[in-house]
Amino acid sequence: MTAITFALPPGVQQRAVRAEDRAFLEDLFIDTRRDTLAAAGWPEAQLRAFLADQYRLQQHHYATHYPGAAQFIIEREAHPVGLLHLHAGAHDLRVVDIALEPGSRNSGLGAALLRAVCAQAADEGRTVSLHVAIGNPACRLYQRLGFQATDPGDGVYQKMVWPAEPPHPGTDP
User: Fold this and answer.
1) DSSP label of 152
2) What is the secondary structure of 29-59 as a DSSP string?
3) Which residues are CB-contacts of 28 (< 8 A; sequence separation ≥ 6)?
4) Which string of DSSP letters, residue by residue, matches 60-81?
C-alpha cells in the first residue's frame, strides 16, 4: 500500500513516518501504556526505560511480521498527534497499530480515521482487522463502527474484523 486516499477532518493531515519521528513515536507508545503499569509503582525513569524497551521490541515485531506496511503520522495543524500503521493483505486491510496522543483522544479523531480506513477497504472489497487488548476501552469504539470479535482471543488480545461490504447489485466485484 503506497497511498491512503481518505478524507480527514479539517485541519488533520497524514504523512509517511520519517526517521525524525522516532522520539515522538516512542513517547506516544509510552503514553498509551503508562496507565496499565501505574499499579507497579515504578519510578518514572524505570517505567520509561521499560516501556522504551517494549517499544523497540514492538517495532522489531512489526518489521518482521508486517513487511511493507504503511506507517502514517497523523497531524493536526502541522503537529504530530498520532500514528496509523496499516498492512494490506490480499483480502484484508490490517490496522497494525493506531494511537493518539492524550490530548487527541476522545475527540472523534480515532473514529474518523477508522471510518476512512473502512471506506477505503470497502472500495477495495477488503475486510479490516485488528487485535485489541481485552477490556481496552477502544473495544466499544470498534464495536460501534461495526467491528466484530472473531475469536475469544488468547486471554489478553482478541481479533476484531470489520466485514467487507458485499458489492452493490449491478457493479463489478
Assistant:
1) -
2) HHHHHHHHHGGG---HHHHHHHHHHHHHHHH
3) 82, 83, 99, 101
4) HHHHHHSTT-EEEEEEETTEEE
What are the angstrom distances between the C-alpha of 74 and each of 47, 77, 134, 139, 168?
26, 10, 25, 21, 32
CATH number for the 12-162 domain, one of 3.40.630.30, 3.30.413.10, 3.30.428.10, 3.40.640.10?
Answer: 3.40.630.30
Express each pLDDT in 28-67 by its tens digit: 999 999 888 888 889 999 999 999 999 999 999 999 999 9
Q: What confidence category does residue 102 fall into, taking pLDDT thresholds of 50, 70 and 90? A: very high
pLDDT digits (tens, 9 = 90+) for 151-172: 776 778 899 999 976 555 554 4
d(CA 90, CA 87): 10
Q: How far apart are the first and last CA of the chain?
A: 20
∠ CA 132-150-105 to the nearest 5 degrees? 30
For residue 60 the three cell numbers come to 522489531
> pTM above 0.70?
yes
Look up residue 164 and give its DSSP letter. Answer: P
